[in-house]
Design a protein that fits this description.
alpha+beta; Fructose-1,6-Bisphosphatase, Chain A, domain 1; D-Maltodextrin-Binding Protein, domain 2; 2 domains; 5-stranded mixed β-sheet; 15 strands; 30% helix; 22% strand; globular; binds 1,6-di-O-phosphono-alpha-D-fructofuranose
């Protein structure tokens, strides 16, 4: 079976500019992902709690730290100027190059013990002369500056979802050949049939969001006039891949809790790369007010509300959310 990912990256490399560097970084990530997937699948990766907290104050699991170390090692010879990670308080200067990489090395780690798919999310940004080589300026670029982005899904299959700005591709790893042997292009249906949200947070949502979700729950008996399904994996890469496959809408909104006043997901290495993949597959991604990829980047580990999926549905949800200037909790 051909190495379809290698063929894709070889063609990409010929596009000139920093395409050769982009292809080299993605190839290094793809090799490291095979190693991490094997460690997870074979249960050799440690679980439990690592005892320390990351920059977002969340407990780091040993697998979070193992994943971060594994990717950092794999990227030592990649053409990278700097590396930012959910597991690193500050960016790390690398060997030098025209690109900067931001990663969530292991997304969904709280699901490891339950055998739900977890993943790695990555975002590649250009290093420009005006940045003066300073990581804080490089990682302050908005999402529309991304050169490439994607995520790996460590499930029954190892998948790489990748965009370099000309569509979103899904590569499937074949353990029998040791190659990413299959590629399909992702196109998200404009209409959603499923919604994805942590309904346990309902009481914290703003009223207009409550009304919007109530409309989905009422289905054919309500204002939408048709029934919807509900799926929520609690793993962004699993929910994101499902939506790339069959459409739907995912929402992690800001809510009335101080801890969630900007939602839970980090803009640099979760929301922006997912948004890039979703848009390139014909979908839409919003922060509840405007296009996610146009939102100015806050702090390195800054959080943002995130809504993404089928274009028509994201438009409807964003219109509802725009009605709530201030977050208010429901009376009941
Ligand atoms: P963990 O990496 O701590 O498991 O968090 C996963 C995640 O960042 C993202 O993958 C999920 O969409 C989201 O959190 C789930 O958050 P809730 O558990 O608050 O619904």
């Amino acid at each position: 079976m051909d190495d379809v990912l290698k063929g894709y990256l070889d063609r990409l490399s010929g596009e000139g500019g920093d395409a050769l560097a982009v292809a080299a970084v993605i190839a290094a990530l793809a090799r490291a992902a095979v190693e991490l997937h094997a460690a997870i699948r074979n249960g050799v990766a440690p679980t439990g709690d690592g005892g320390r907290a990351n920059a977002s104050g969340e407990v780091q699991k040993p697998l979070d730290l193992l994943a971060d170390e594994l990717f950092l090692t794999a990227l030592q010879s990649a053409p990278l100027h700097c590396y930012a990670s959910e597991e690193q308080e500050q960016p790390i200067l690398m060997g030098g190059g025209s690109l900067a990489l931001a990663m969530d090395p292991l997304d969904g780690s709280s699901n490891i013990e339950t055998n739900i798919a977890v993943g790695t999310i990555f975002s590649l940004l250009p290093v420009l002369p005006e940045h003066g080589g300073r990581p804080e300026r490089i990682f302050a670029q908005a999402g529309h500056a991304q050169r490439a982005a994607g995520f790996f899904v460590y499930g029954a299959q190892l998948l790489l979802i990748l965009t370099c700005g000309a569509g979103t591709e899904c590569f499937v790893f074949d353990p029998t050949t040791g190659k990413y042997g299959r590629r399909t292009s992702c196109r998200i249906p404009a209409q959603a049939c499923e919604y994805s949200i942590n309904a346990a947070n309902r009481r914290h949502w703003p009223r207009p969001l409550q009304r919007y979700l109530r409309g989905l729950e009422l289905g054919g008996a309500g204002p939408r006039g048709r029934d919807f399904g509900m799926r929520y994996a609690g793993s962004l890469v699993a929910d994101g891949y499902r939506i790339l496959q069959r459409g739907g809408i995912f929402l992690y909104p800001a809510d009335a809790r101080d801890s969630h006043s900007s939602g839970r997901l980090r803009q640099l290495y979760e929301a922006n790369p997912i948004a890039f993949c979703i848009e390139q597959a014909g979908g839409a991604a919003s922060d509840g007010v405007g296009r996610m990829l146009d939102r100015p980047q806050g702090d390195l580990h800054g959080k943002v509300p995130l809504i993404f999926g089928s274009r028509d549905e994201v438009e409807i949800a964003t219109r509802h959310l725009a009605q709530s200037a201030a977050v208010s909790t429901a009376a009941e």
